[in-house]
Structures are given as C-alpha cells and as structure tokens.
C-alpha cells in the first residue's frame, strides 16, 4: 500500500492516472458504514456488502420496529459467519425528529404559491392543504418568514419529492405556510426540518430509551448514533443510560451533528462523545450552502486532532437510483478522505437504493485512490505540533511507531492492545500502511460469572481509518513474557501474509508492552 503513495503537490504523469488500481485485501483505509434496509437485508445482500467493503452496519430506528431490525441483524450474523468478515453494529436513534403523519401513505402533490397548514392534530388526514405533524410546539418555535423543509425520509435532494415552505402566519397551534416549489411528497415517511429553529424535544426520546434498553442490550451493540445531538449534556445523558445497562457500558457514542445548535456547541460535544457523525443532509438545510464545506473541514480537523472518528454522510445520493455517482459526488468522497475523514456513512443509497453493493464498492474505490495521495507527512507534522510537548507516554510511543514505519517503508504496523486505545492512537497519526490491531482479550467477572472482553474493542476499531482488528487467543495477555508474545506475533504475521499485506523480506513495525515498558520494534521477514 505504501509503495503506491504519491502526493498531489508533486508532478503526476497524467497517463499513470489511467493505470488500473491493484486490488488490496483491505478495500480502503477509510471505512464504510452501510444502512441496512429493504434493499440490503437478506443474507446474500449483506454478504455482498461485506465483501464490497462495509465494516459497520447501521440500524435506523426512525422506521421499522425491533422485530424487523432483529431479523436483519440475524441475517447480518449469518453473513459475517459465511464471509468471515468482522462487522460492527450501530443503533441510530430517532431523537428530536419532526415527522409528517401520513397514515394512508398516499402521495401528496403541492403546488408553488399554494397554502398548506402544518398542524399537531394527528387525527386529520394528510392532504395538499393540511399536513399533520408529530410535534405540538412548532407554532411557538417559528415566526413569519422562517423556512421549513419537508421531504421523503433520507431525502436525496431531488426537488420532485421534497418541498420548501415559508411560514406565512401562526394560527394557534397551526403554522400556515406558502409552498415555494411544486413537488409531490412520495414514500411512507416524510421528515420536516425548520431551518435554524430550536425544537423543544428530547434528544433521547422514551422510544429511544426503550429500544436501547431492550434491542440494544439483547444484541450488545457497538455504537449508538445519537441523532440531533445539540449539547454535551445530551451525550452525558446517553452515557448515564448506557452505564446502567451492563455490557452496554462499553458501547461508544457517536454524536450526530444535524443543525446549527449542535454546530455552536461542537467543541463541548466532541469532548464528551467517542466520535462525531456529520449529518450533512440536515446540516445542508440548516446552514447556507456556501458554509457547509467550511463546517465539514473544521469539524473533521478537530476530530482528527482529538483522535476521535469523524464520519461523513450523504456523499453519493444519486446512486440511490443510478449505477454511477455524479462527478461532483465522486470528487466529494475523495475530498472527504483528503480532509481526514475516518468513515463514509451511506443512508438512502443502501437502505432503499437500487444498487447497495455497487455503491459500497464504488465509494471504497474512490476512498482507496484518494488515500494514495493523502499528504501524510504534512498531516503528521500538524498533529505532532497540535499535541505539543511533553507528550503522554502512549502518544509518544504511537507517533514514534508511525514515524519508524514510514522511514523503513514497513508494509504494516502490528499493535498489541487490550483496550484498543494504543491502536487508535497509532491510527490518529494516519500511517500510510494498515495498522493490524491485535486485541488481547482480558478476563473479567461480575461476581456471578467470568467472561473475556475483547470483542467490543475489536469491532469498535472498524470505524477508525486504517485500523484492522483481529482477536487474539485469550491465553496470551498483552503484557506477557517474550515466548507468548512471539507466538501471538506469529499468528498476526500469518494473518497478514494470508491477506496479502505482508510478503517475504517486508519490514514490519511492532508495538507492544513488555513488562511495564512499551516497545516499538522493527522486524524484517525472511522467506
């Protein structure tokens, strides 16, 4: 992987751009999160998605009940077993989401300059004159001139299925609006977004808490995507809930930033969360279009410096209905990688899109190509400067391992870890080669029974750029004697050879604990 590395700032022979890319065992350093739904929930479809490069499966509870998602999850487990590819599970909460209640699920045609009323009285039928909504406080939150967007859930921005409204007047609990563009609202679910308006709804709804406490606990979910995170307190509240739910105390919280309120409190949210999802669909409505890129670049940079995963959404919307992305979308994916994004999250493209597998494959190829021209040297210097001196013990070891690997042109970095923290710190410095995270299980007890930890830590690295986990034999602790370390290292090297990332005479950098000391060593492989 390292041998192909070049920089956009250096002269590139144009003909070389057309040379076919070499297939790698790891499709791309940047990870792909796929939302599983009607078009991607069979064992066959999920197996194909895993082979194409999906490493995290997202279960979106804005639609579908627990039974539906459980059936999908059982199919995911079967697909993991069949393909022998690890995959993490992400539960996406509903949060403070405004929805249009359309019980009959009939298409609603709205004409430009017509009047439509948004009402909290959900007993009324949805029509081109009245749209019942799930929130009683909208009339108190908006004023004349405010903009409201209504579109199919996970709208792709197509003007034929989404509509812009302008508030004309507030009449009691009702909000009377003028339709700004002709459109037909189609699909089983429409969401509503009031631009730059505070919505007085909880971030964790009662339904969210119930789903996490039942479905989440039952399935030991790896990540929670906390929709509509607006304050650091939202993350703390979710963390408190998880801490009371046994195994879920290890579940990581990814704060989903969807509006200006979340943007304003971004720094505090980042400190509390385990990672950030930039929900560009809703952000693209809340922010002026010319400001979206600026927030994305600033937010990704802050995540990178904090060593926390940054996930970007809504990149190839057109692939919901088309086999190829637009030129702008292809460039957008590449720019997200060059900005430092850890993972790309696919929503409508895999949930209801016609080409879920092709979408994952295409995005993976773009990520792979962009990764080859990522300016690691500049990124490394910026990160070291940001961290400052004196560095912590672990940070110094991690940055040294990456620098050594680049200097000796190592094909891979192997990191022994039990919590996953050391491996994530190495990945923070964005080495040009894959990081094999060898997770050593730890024995733990709840006074009733003994069990091994490790599976959570392994799966949670599947959203971190450049990090590829493998679970070691629990009989070999991370801080063990030399003999057992060598046997675990041999297993890791064999895994690397079998996957094609390590070849004879390659150099490998190994990061491990020996007694109380952390050691970085360089080994050269023989035939």
Which term fits the overall shape? globular
Radius of gyration from the alpha-carbon trace, in angstroms = 24 Å
Largest sheet: 8 strands, parallel, barrel
How far do the termini sit from each other? 20 Å
Helix content: 25-40%
Strands in their spatial order, largest beta sheet: 1-2-3-13-14-15-16-17
List low-confidence stretches. Answer: none
Instruction: Please report the total strand number as a whole number.
Output: 24
Mean pLDDT score: 88
Q: What fraction of residues sit in β-strands?
A: 15-25%
- Give the oligomeric state: single chain
Quick structural overview:
Belongs to the pyruvate kinase family. The protein is 35% helix and 23% strand. It is α/β, with parallel strands linked by helices.
Describe this entry's structure for a reader.
This protein is α/β, with parallel strands linked by helices and 527 residues long. The protein is 35% helix and 23% strand. It contains 17 helices and 24 strands. An 8-stranded parallel beta barrel has the order 1-2-3-13-14-15-16-17, surrounded by 7 helices. A 7-stranded mixed β-sheet has the order 4-12-8-9-10-6-7. A hairpin with a 4-residue loop joins strand 20 (443-445) and strand 21 (450-452). Helix 1 packs across helix 2 and helix 7 (266-272) packs parallel to helix 9 (289-306). The longest helix is centred in the N-terminal third of the chain and has 18 residues, at 66-83. The radius of gyration is 24 Å and the shape is globular. The chain starts with 30 loop residues before the first strand and ends with a strand. The model has no long low-confidence stretch (mean pLDDT 88).
